[in-house]
Amino acid sequence: MKGKATSFDIAHYAGVSQSTVSRALRNSHLVNEETRKRVFDIAKKLNYKVDKNASNLRTQQSSTLALLLFEDPTSDESQINPFFLAMLGSITRACAKEGYDLLVSFQSASADWQADYEDSHRADGIILLGYGDYIDYQPKFNTLLEQNTKFVCWGATVDNRPDLTVCCDNYGGGKLAAEHFIAHSRTDCAFIGDASDHSPEFFSRFQGFKDELLANNVKINERKMANAISTEESGYHATRSLIANNIKFNALFAASDLIAIGAIRALKEANINVPKDVAVVGFDNIAIASYVNPPLTTIEQNTTVAGQMLVENLLKLIRGEEVQSTLLAPILIPRRSS
Amino acid sequence: MKGKATSFDIAHYAGVSQSTVSRALRNSHLVNEETRKRVFDIAKKLNYKVDKNASNLRTQQSSTLALLLFEDPTSDESQINPFFLAMLGSITRACAKEGYDLLVSFQSASADWQADYEDSHRADGIILLGYGDYIDYQPKFNTLLEQNTKFVCWGATVDNRPDLTVCCDNYGGGKLAAEHFIAHSRTDCAFIGDASDHSPEFFSRFQGFKDELLANNVKINERKMANAISTEESGYHATRSLIANNIKFNALFAASDLIAIGAIRALKEANINVPKDVAVVGFDNIAIASYVNPPLTTIEQNTTVAGQMLVENLLKLIRGEEVQSTLLAPILIPRRSS
DNA sequence: TAAATTCATGACACCGGTGTCATAATGTCA
DNA sequence: TGACATTATGACACCGGTGTCATGAATTTA
Hints:
Chain A is α/β, with parallel strands linked by helices.
């Protein structure tokens, strides 16, 4: 045998037509049991595998999903946000379970990514994953919708299409953090993240946090808030600036674990004890969170379930079934940092 | 327009043949500049994308690499080993840089994975990634070789084909750890990992460690060794069993960071101070390592370079170029655990 | 026993590109 | 000006499957 075996080779050896081979291999009931067995045996012997390109071309589908990972433009090449890495893992697993392959691709938010994968028939649908300034994406979402591209996204909401989003109940998560502080009588709260609506996820977390505090007659002082993106560095610097401005607080809610870890570093450097002087709560429950010193109290987003939901919903869209918006319940994981 | 635009549609609007459209879009010099421009404009307007399935089918290649991730069968669904997650990130980046897509797939070591992706023309080559009992894989490697499948692998060596492997100089890394202990006069050493040759990487690390100690007239006591696979749990239990058997040591080399982290937990529980009573050194330098308490001294494997090398070498193989075996130099990252 | 139904299979167009060969038009050189 | 090279394009087979329609044999029904 020179190249790879094709269905014609099998047909030749089995003494049947290529059509029959194709049918046999796909377990069509239209083929005689005996013939099927002969075809299978020969296929196995020749190490035959269906050519996906030919098959996909004909059927106009690919059994493949594409995952586009948007990174904070700031986070240079060094490290990928561990939360997304965890999501990637669970999405990969969920795809495998459904018999789909997963194409992974990093994207910068600005690039001309919309529908590339789906238009070129490399994937049946797209999963969008990333923090970041999703508002800029809306026009791209619209392009995707216009072209009838199947996609779901994590976190960001698509105008008029809540069903395309899977996300954690960030508002509820923020409330959990506030409840926790109040239960421990830590009412002089600081917040680090982005309280503007640039980053809708951080914004919701802050809103929930603020509202729950207000419900308990605690007001958060605007001076006790600092902006940060989701990196350890950013959290560190934001916290340092609060300290440098001599701003006092006994509780700190960080919009993500990485920010919280940076914050703890800054607090330690300033000889502020965590949790004695300041209780810290993060968000995400990344793997690192339980290993830092002190172990970080955080609001968990269940990445396993999240990945599954994204894949399941996307497959439903592809199959033309109805999908509902999915809000995942966050859980408070108390550890020693608070 | 009903469905997606094809090159025939463009040909129609541009008033040329479909052949010319195809040539124009691929920047063939055989096509007139003016015609090319017209074709490009129309393609843009129609939101045309080359159908990858058709193109791949004809050219018999896919511009895609497949990454097969083998997991320790023991590590249940919960978490993926962070070291491999980091590798996955760097491989994804390296692929993007080379204009290749990446298909990611989890595999159990036992499954019938060989060549699935390449045979079915979904990928031009395969990257194999995983710790684990690579010895069992040799027959599968042979199958791959026989079928002339292009692949590279991390860590494991393929008989007679050193060029297919990219790995860290595990032996040299083990020596670094030993040097470090000797420099700090910690010569009563324990080792946790797998000192048998089931896991060739762990084995090499241990060999380097042992040989360097011997070169300094230090002998490692067999009783001070315990087996573990690369999980925190496993490291924890292995260390506990040493402690339970009342075995004393003042230095501990763990074959991976996860093991080291588990070991530190066990030591702490037994009121053994790290690094005062026992100095601990790990291997990998995963992200968590710098956050644990105390921060973990470890032997770094540069995942960014590793990912790049894997991709570059695989592409060379695919292009039929010559490839040499690649040993990456490990670096000792001293932190407070030693 | 003729007609209808079921079963198993083959022939063939088709998916949407790419590569080869043929062809026409224009330019170049002896 | 005839021979030859160059440039731009079209026609067409082909990649390896899948889906439809036609066909013939075996079986059931009227």
